[in-house]
Amino acid sequence: MRVLILSWEFPPIVEGGLARHVRKLTEQLAAAGHEVHVLTRGGDHAPAEEERHGVIVYRVREPAFPRDDLDAFLAWIAQMNADMLAAGAELLERFDFDLLHSHDWLVAVAAQRLATRMRVPWVVTVHATEHGRHQGWVDKHPQSHIHAVERRMVHRADRVIACSKYMQGHLSDVFDLPKDAISVIPNGIDPSDLYAPGDLAALRARYAAPDQKLVLLAGRLVYEKGFQVALDALPGVIEQLGDVRFLVAGTGTHEEELRAQAARLGLDGHGTFVGWLGDDALHGIYRIADLCVIPSLYEPFGLVALEAMASGCPCVAADTGGLREVVPRDVGLRFRSTDTAALTRTIVRVLTDRELRERLVAEGREHVLRFDWADVARSTASLYEDLQPRSVRL
């Protein structure tokens, strides 16, 4: 089967977990014998066309997007879709595709128009929604615009994929979509990708002394990830345990507010904001941390939790969204989202109970094996085939 996949990010451009998802999914589909083409964006240094690990990648050259002006960002998205549509039209002169698969609202306009021209099924994976990111406040621009794009997208697609049962229910409720129109296919993880080169002891010494505990917060620094809840919990942890260190890895629109909050709480001498880290550096941080906290207010899945567990780092996660499925109670501890006191107690418990930490590490490493990319690709390919006329099914 020849498949065209659209995504606004793909390596070497990595904005978050989406790029990793699309990369691993496409590579596994290609390894299974499908002909996979990816249409994405690129900068000045990424090749316009290349083959990566069996996947054929095409990139439309786009400038850096505006991060602080949402109206300007929407205009940038519109231009990117126009460029992708033009590039896709050129691809249609070269290839006959059996199906188009797009990821999230950012490429929905180009994806729908290309699928219509191709007269092939259109599959959409929804990784998150504007409704979820803003706790339902989508009645005003620009959130209302994005919400409307998402609604049109899921209703016009031939099939919708959600990454968790939580997201299946969320999409059904928010967009009035029948649950049986939404397939649940989780994200995957490849523990072999989490290789951490270099001297881990030296890396650990950079952020914490041997007798100190190190708490990791990793991900996009945006409000819905809940890092403000974790910072509020840390003074209580430090009061009970002494000099606990924290490390915040990531960037985002909420970063300055989080830095200011840490200063107000007197945390500046107890931790570090390290900004965005490449994969190798982040994988090393997972391995030197004593605990990873995922305090999300809204979380469709929870890839950071999987990466931490695969790296041997125990997890404390908010009892919300897809984290309930990714971090079941026997492999990690959960706390009621936004309950700062509960989070403080849970962090203290994990950091002071060595036997508990060792159990969580062992069970976490076993648990992540259930999220295999080959299984994800097989489920996705089966969905593709179900949408094909019998004459072209593999």
Please write out the topology.
Elements: E1 2-6, H1 17-31, E2 35-42, E3 49-52, E4 55-61, H2 70-94, E5 99-103, H3 108-118, E6 122-126, H4 130-133, H5 143-156, E7 159-162, H6 165-175, E8 182-184, H7 200-207, E9 214-218, H8 227-241, E10 245-249, H9 255-264, E11 271-275, H10 279-288, E12 291-294, H11 303-310, E13 315-318, H12 323-326, E14 333-335, H13 340-352, H14 354-367, H15 373-386
Parallel strand pairs: 1-2, 1-5, 2-4, 5-6, 6-7, 7-8, 9-10, 9-12, 10-11, 12-13, 13-14
Antiparallel strand pairs: 3-4
Overall description:
The protein folds into 2 domains: 208 residues, 3-Layer(aba) Sandwich (Rossmann fold), CATH 3.40.50.2000; 180 residues, Glycogen Phosphorylase B (Rossmann fold), CATH 3.40.50.2000. It is built from 15 helices and 14 strands. The strands form 2 sheets. Strands 3-4-2-1-5-6-7-8 form an 8-stranded mixed sheet. A 6-stranded parallel sheet has the order 11-10-9-12-13-14, sandwiched between helices. Helix 7 packs across helix 10. By secondary structure, it is of the alpha/beta class. The model has no long low-confidence stretch (mean pLDDT 94). The radius of gyration is 21 Å and the shape is globular.
